[in-house]
Queue: 2 jobs
Job 1
Amino acid sequence: MLDFWASWCPDCRRDAPNVVRLYREYKDKGVVFVGISFDVDRKAWQEAVKKYGMDYVQVSELKKMREAQISKTYGVSWIPSLYVIGRDGKLVLGTVLSAKVEQTLRQLVK
């Protein structure tokens, strides 16, 4: 599950507790979470990770979303964006709604 976000994004901050809850619920069920931040300020990014308890892998190019290579690769044009990638490497779901991710993960781990 790819979590595209940034510490300066109000919607991302609002949804962070939901994503963290999903991480805690599914991390031992074979679901790997990776946070991809579009922060340009390393300190702000790291403080947000700590504040929200985002204990899953976190990466950043420290570039704005429109400048980051990963946003171009995945076609990210809005954050938060959440992508569920199947075991086969194919995109299962791309959404801005963590509730949809939860429904998808429930189905996938049955």
Job 2
Amino acid sequence: MMLFLPLSFEPVADLPDWLVILLFGIPFVGGITLYVYKTRHARSWRKGIFPQSLKPTEDNYLEAYLALGAKLMLYNYQESKEKIQFINHYFNRYFPKATYNFGDSLLFSLKYPIRTETITDWMKMHLKDEGSRSQIIYFLTGLALINGKMNSSELNFLKKINTDLDLTPDNLTKIIAIYAAYSEHRKEKETQKTAPSKKYAHEILGVPKNASQEEIKKAYRKLVKLHHPDRFATGTESQQKMAAEKFVEIQNAYESLIG
């Protein structure tokens, strides 16, 4: 038979006041401090602020991409199903090791739209080269052009992000042209026109159709310098993978025009 002894606080009452405060106060204050620390980022996000103290980890880059993607979705919510599929596929491809709940994170970002400059400021703090910052423009442009077209609000959003990332207007123009050419190339394949699209290769390199071989080589060297995988050796796995795929795309476009 178990005996239950009544609790007694008499020994505590005999302790000095300062020791009682120390014994019971520190755990209480510590618990409150831990709670505040754990929830500080969520509170910032609810105000639309991307916390500038976040470290440049794979998970945090993913959350930055997702917050901007969600903001873009709000400008054309009719295509939300296709856009969600695009984002999910993109993240599975480039952020396979990220630990996050896609549904919860997306709903949170849609409910609490981000102030975009808080993300672009954070990115500029950690992404010093143009190639790394351009990766977010590729992602957002692909999302906006999921069905081959975008509205004026989406275009203005892309222009703002491009400008806030200290990228030239020409950078966005080229990326939009690449996606437009890719969409056309995809339609050609669907209609069994198997000949490779020269226009797509020209758009990737950012040169006109009648460009000379010297102009093509010059554009190629510039892009290789910008997107070479070696420049991303210290970046995250997702940045390295994006850069590697972009580099191969540039290489193939160059060979199709020169070779």
